């Protein structure tokens, strides 16, 4: 495998390291120095720690005779992807005991299902839940009796939140253990078709419900390549979970073997200071993850999340950096919504192991970056053998399905899946990997809305009959917590299928499952922060050009007053987050309350 990094990526890494020199040094200097020493912990503290254990185990922990591993879990059974975690602490304890180590559940974190809250009031809490999860992880880890910790979290804001919280304890090693995707059910394209029919009143609620139940039908992550599965791929690329095992099914024997192997790796890492999380998550690790995002056509949500992850590790990155990465990284996967197949087909084609291997060969991923396994990425990445009872791997081979996974020498497109959009309306991002080339340019009069339900109502009234740019403002983090606007996907898809040039411009987010329709999202400055989109009016001509990365209006906005700010609803717990909305950073800065200046 190649070890020479693409020159553009190497120069970008050097720029990031230079601009981040002070913040990275401050982060590292703030971490506790030297090995963990439980014998220095007070006796009462230790007695509380070990109260649940039998006497022999108490002595092992209190006298620091072997590693004591914490578990931070986001288990609940609202999330199908997290339901398998119910049994993980017991399994982890069994495998740790076999190694002479001990374990303890340090704490739990909230974990909401965005699939349940789409279009509902709870979605306004979704993005902020990431920082709540980070803080919750810190609370669990604050007991300061662990030599390392295991993170159990998969979906949307949860895995980034756990990682951000863990980086506050970067003097310890960490490993993620996922649960894997559910088995393939109704195809994602059939599901989307039924949703569009329902949006037009051509499918009943019962038909729609049956379709959804066939798509979401068992434990595991949803099978489309949205934010949850983008998390898993990026964690593989970071070497924080086994690089090649993200998409093994929950029922696979190898999934159980991966639990044992992950515990073994963490137990070993407790004796290697070089594998502390704060050291391991460096510029190489972060850029490898972002290359994986671009090469796989992953979720735009990570243009927000990984900015915050980087900041947690002391690195300063922005969307210009992501644009540079995307400009040279070839798109090598087609998984719905970027294609017709799901993540199980991707795994069968070679999965993250196959993608990592070809990107290392092409010089896009730094194969010398370390992993928590104690070996370099190039020497760790492997395909797991799903039918084996014990942990078994094989070297990554050529793709077994070129419609899903391709080598870097034969990409689906020469650049990555996300494009920076900028102009006199601000800066945003566009997931071009999911949009056909013929739909990547729209210049048309706009209709301006401040609530997604207004857009749906206008569609149902038959108001959209011409080329159109839908502008949905006051959906940013300061306005209402930046909800995902996935409920707009079916109706915008219907308009496009009718032959109308249509695009969306918003300071809100779209789901990681969204695609097909040209969308400039996460627009900064947001309307609430006096961004230009707050001055757009119905009929203004807006250009959304994903070929060139242009977001522009021909209207003169300089003399206009911004639109009135909608009243902020406080029901369903939203009022408690007002202080977060008042202080949150912009989307390009990570939409966080943890890293505001």
From TrEMBL:
Keyword field: 4Fe-4S, Carbohydrate metabolism, Gluconate utilization, Iron, Iron-sulfur, Lyase, Metal-binding
SUPFAM superfamilies referenced in this protein's UniProt entry, alphabetically: IlvD/EDD N-terminal domain-like, LeuD/IlvD-like
InterPro entries, sorted: 6-phosphgluc_deHydtase, Dihydro-acid_dehy_C, DiOHA_6PGluconate_deHydtase_CS, ILV_EDD_C, ILV_EDD_N, IlvD/EDD_N
KW rRNA processing (keyword) present: no
GO MF annotation terms: phosphogluconate dehydratase activity
Gene3D superfamilies hit by this protein: IlvD/EDD C-terminal domain-like
Record domain Dihydroxy-acid/6-phosphogluconate dehydratase C-terminal: where: 403-591
EC id: 4.2.1.12
UniProt cross-references to PROSITE patterns, sorted A to Z: ILVD_EDD_1, ILVD_EDD_2
Keyword Transferase: no
All copies of domain Dihydroxy-acid/6-phosphogluconate dehydratase N-terminal, residue ranges: 67-379
Regions that span the bilayer: none
Family: Belongs to the IlvD/Edd family.
PANTHER family: D-XYLONATE DEHYDRATASE, PHOSPHOGLUCONATE DEHYDRATASE
This protein's name: Phosphogluconate dehydratase
